[in-house]
């Protein structure tokens, strides 16, 4: 928990510094605006980014009455994990996938796509949900959601930065500033992807192990991952937002190929399956 808290602090400090640097291209007033914007985003990310992610994917909250299978499974697995009952959402996407979000275990949510519920048997679904509860248990969800919010903001700012500075250049004839802005517009999205990568890979293995423990059998998640890898490559997400890709149990952009796979935010599914098979063998399954 301390490691994730430290990472969260360093991530937010680094991103604040980046926003100030971008604002500094427009002078002292721009740097101040960058500081204010970053501070506002930090506040917003802590309190509301989970709602923003769920809204972006049109998440629909479910109860025991309208989806007893999913709700009861989450409740039973949360009890196994020693966690408070998270909110449960269904995402209207046919690609089978899932993610967890929130700022702490007391304010957490688990979201599953419609496709996931359709193709998974109860054991496989338990493995997937238990994996997401592992992220909640390890307090990965805050840093993951903050990274998603800032990655999206950085990408959007970088997209419009050359145009903004281009107008400033025409007024002030500052070629050096325009060149720096162009460089930042190229490097900033790459930096956002690197941030996502740095927090994703190790935590996926840890959540896999937790998922095996909470569901009672490593092979539940192993079988689920095998299905997820196959289906995710054949069924594309309608909402293809790279800023949120690291939050899902498998990369929702994996089937797109090309630049979408240039920076992987997840370890390979084959490697995760091997680790779960080793764990199952050690436990005698």
Structural class by helix and strand composition: alpha+beta
In whole angstroms, the N-to-C terminal distance is 30 Å
> Strand order within the widest sheet?
1-2-4-3
How large a portion of the residues is in β-strands, by DSSP E? 5-15%
What is the number of strand segments? 4
Question: Major sheet, described briefly?
Answer: 4 strands, mixed
Describe the structure.
- By secondary structure, the chain is an alpha+beta fold.
- The protein has helices at 2-24, 28-56, 68-81, 114-119, 122-137, 140-172, 175-215, 218-234, 269-282, and strands at 60-61, 87-91, 98-104, 107-113.
- The chain has a 4-stranded mixed beta sheet with strand order 1-2-4-3, with helices on both faces.
- Helix 1 crosses helix 2 (28-56), helix 2 (28-56) crosses helix 6 (140-172) and helix 5 (122-137) crosses helix 7.
- The protein is elongated, with a radius of gyration of 20 Å.
Give the arrangement of secondary structure elements:
Blueprint lengths: L1 H23 L3 H29 L3 E2 L6 H14 L5 E5 L6 E7 L2 E7 H6 L2 H16 L2 H33 L2 H41 L2 H17 L34 H14 L3
């Amino acid at each position: 928990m301390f490691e994730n808290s430290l990472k969260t602090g360093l991530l937010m400090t680094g991103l604040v510094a980046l926003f100030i640097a971008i604002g500094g291209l427009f002078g002292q007033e721009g740097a101040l605006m960058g500081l204010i914007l970053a501070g506002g985003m930090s506040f917003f990310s802590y309190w509301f980014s989970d709602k923003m992610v769920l809204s972006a994917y049109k998440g629909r909250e479910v109860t025991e009455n309208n989806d007893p299978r999913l709700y009861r499974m989450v409740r039973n697995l949360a009890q196994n994990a020693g966690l408070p009952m998270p909110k449960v959402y269904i995402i209207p996407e046919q690609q089978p996938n899932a993610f967890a979000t929130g700022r702490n275990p007391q304010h957490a949510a688990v979201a599953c796509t419609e496709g996931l519920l359709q193709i998974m048997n109860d054991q496989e679904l338990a493995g997937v949900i238990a994996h997401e509860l592992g992220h909640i248990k390890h307090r990965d969800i805050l840093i993951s959601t903050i990274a998603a919010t800032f990655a999206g903001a950085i990408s959007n700012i970088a997209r419009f930065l050359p145009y903004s500075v281009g107008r400033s250049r025409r007024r002030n004839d500052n070629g050096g500033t325009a060149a720096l802005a162009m460089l930042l517009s190229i490097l900033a999205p790459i930096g956002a992807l690197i941030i996502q990568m740095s927090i994703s890979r190790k935590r996926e293995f840890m959540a896999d192990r937790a998922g095996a423990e909470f569901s009672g059998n490593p092979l539940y998640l192993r079988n689920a991952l095998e299905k997820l890898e196959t289906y995710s490559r054949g069924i594309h997400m309608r909402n293809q937002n790279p800023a949120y890709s690291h939050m899902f149990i498998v990369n929702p952009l994996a089937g797109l190929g090309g630049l979408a796979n240039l920076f992987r935010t997840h370890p390979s599914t084959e490697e995760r399956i091997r680790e779960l098979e080793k764990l199952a063998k050690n436990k005698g399954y």
